Amino acid sequence: MKDELIYFIKRDTSEHRYGEHLLINNLKRLEKYCEYFEKLVNKFIKIKKKYNYTNMNKWTEYPEYFPHLTLFKSMTEMTLILCVDYEGGISPNDKELSPLIEDPMIYEQPDFETEQDEYLYVDINYEIHNKMFFTILSQAWLESNGHECGLVVKTLENNSTQSFYLNDLKWGGSSKFENFNDRTKPVKNEYNDSIKLDEIYNLVGMN
Is 85 helix (H, G, I), strand (E, B) or coil? Predict the structure, then answer.
């Protein structure tokens, strides 16, 4: 995984102005995420044991709703906090399993020549970080067999409706799980378990 992501990051930064700084930022972030990867897989395993379709009636606060496991993040960071979402009614943070992963808070920037250069740099840097992060998150979900929980599992950006659904690796608006509320059967992944890393990278980039 790491070598493939290095290739993707080098490719995606090579043609941009200040590409060297974009590359340094994101390779340093990648290093931190890879160091934490096994812990992330284990966190997903703990989540599916604690919250799953089979034991749902033991922990759900609102039996009339189909709960979604929601990983909250801020607009500028990738730290993920686990809550349960009951069609907009949010449970308190799960302090045992949060944070699922933390943003390494690495950010280097060059001396910009213009204000416009800085705006473009910030946007591109975030875009590359975003694709790398959600690829790693998706890969950890796959390796943990996270789908075995049988629930909708998504990220949600605070003060936004922007969500990413691990069940089909799609963003809200494209995901079939955005308004999923069928309690009659467990949720299954909507992609082949043998999906390749470059396919995941391309899917998460379709935001």
Answer: strand
The torsion angle over the Cα atoms of residues 170, 154, 44 and 40, rounded to 10 degrees, is 70
Non-local (6+) Cβ contacts of 140 within 8 A are 37, 40, 41, 44, 146
Is-contact 98 82, C-beta < 8 A? Answer: yes
- The residues, ordered by sequence, that sit 6+ positions from 93 with a Cβ below 8 Å of its Cβ are 81, 82, 83
- Asked whether residue 203 carries a pLDDT value surpassing 90, the answer given is yes
8 Å CB contact between 47 and 146: yes
Give Rg (Cα) of the chain.
18
CA distance 28 to 132: 12
Judge if pTM exceeds 0.90.
yes
CA atoms of 179 and 163, how far apart (whole Å): 12
pLDDT digits (tens, 9 = 90+) for 146-181: 999 999 999 999 867 789 999 999 999 899 999 898
13-32 tens-digit pLDDT: 998 989 999 999 999 999 99
